[in-house]
Write the structure tokens for this entry.
Amino acid sequence: MSCIPTSDSSAFDPASLARRSVGLVRSIARAAGEGAHHLTVVLVSSDGADQAECTFTGPVLDESTPDEALVQTAFLLAGTAMDGMAMTVLRTVGPDGTVTLMSWAVRDLIARPATAEQSRIAYRISEDDFAGPSPEVTFVDAPALV
């Protein structure tokens, strides 16, 4: 059971939220595996919608990951613990040049994997590309994150 944190709950602790949200980004990076990754996060809350993007080389985040973009992405994911819901869309160019796309819905910093078809819809919304991506993009079911 999930609850919306309030300022007097331990779940609202900014340091805890920061650790949990960066941990979620790290989990996404591990799930993505080898390759160059582009992560888009769209947060929808009572205040409207915000979007952030970051790029990284997986399967782990390292010092070459741009700090500002990573912080903004993690910040938006932390917003799911307050009153929002986010959709993450991860586009990966593998070492062999293949392009895959998967996504997760995030609420209270818990990511729920999307199917390949749900990822196709999320991609179209996040990219404002209602005609669809180029044929070389393969949509895959996202794995559960640990």
User: Anything to note?
Assistant: The first strand starts at residue 35 and ends at 45. The mean pLDDT is 82. The helical segments are 14-32, 67-78, 116-126. The chain has three helices and six strands.
